[in-house]
Specification:
With about 170 residues, the chain is an all-alpha fold. It is about 80% helix and about 0% strand.
Length: about 170
């Protein structure tokens, strides 16, 4: 008998949530946030509408979960880097190349700007705190978080990501 008889159900729950969030991100990248509906999220995610509503009550709750998931992914990317400069470069490339952010810059700039300027939001603080641990400095994390938020609106090339990451780390420690 398995240690946790609900483990298979929990795994299915996580897979379904992941599919929903991936579907929502795909829709943001293609049709935009404003034009995305719960019906489209269910269809793109290949889950029944009832299943979608069992996981999320509305589009805002899907978006909140998606933002949380994306922040967690960014933290994992930064944690896996061998040093602070590589962490910032990897984060910069990830933010600058994100297709959902790219589409939001064009189709939904107001909600994107609103989210990026919500510096008191728990997700902003969660990311900034994780970055402070990774970079070894709260001051560097504050600068880096704002630098990365700027790239959601004005992305960098991979070359510029590296160059600016190299410039940010030593300058922040002065």
């Amino acid at each position: 008998m398995p240690l946790n008889k609900y483990a298979p159900q929990a795994a299915t729950h996580r897979r379904t949530q992941s599919a929903i969030l991936e579907g929502a991100k795909q829709l943001i990248a293609t049709v935009g946030l404003a034009k995305m509906s719960m019906i489209e999220i269910a269809d793109t995610s290949q889950v029944a509408r009832a299943t979608l509503y069992n996981h999320y009550r509305d589009k805002d709750s899907v978006l909140a979960a998606l933002c949380d998931s994306e922040i967690r992914k960014l933290v994992v990317i930064a944690q896996s880097a061998p040093n602070p400069t590589d962490a910032l470069e990897a984060l910069s490339i990830q933010v600058s190349s994100d297709s959902a952010l790219a589409n939001m810059r064009n189709s939904d700039p107001a909600p994107l700007t609103q989210f990026l300027s919500a510096t008191s939001h728990p997700l902003w603080n969660q990311f900034n705190d994780a970055l402070a641990l990774i970079l070894g400095s709260q001051i560097v994390a504050d600068l880096a978080t704002r630098w990365l938020a700027g790239q959601a609106m004005a992305p960098l090339t991979p070359e510029d990501s590296r160059l600016q990451a190299e410039l940010l780390i030593p300058r922040a420690h002065l």
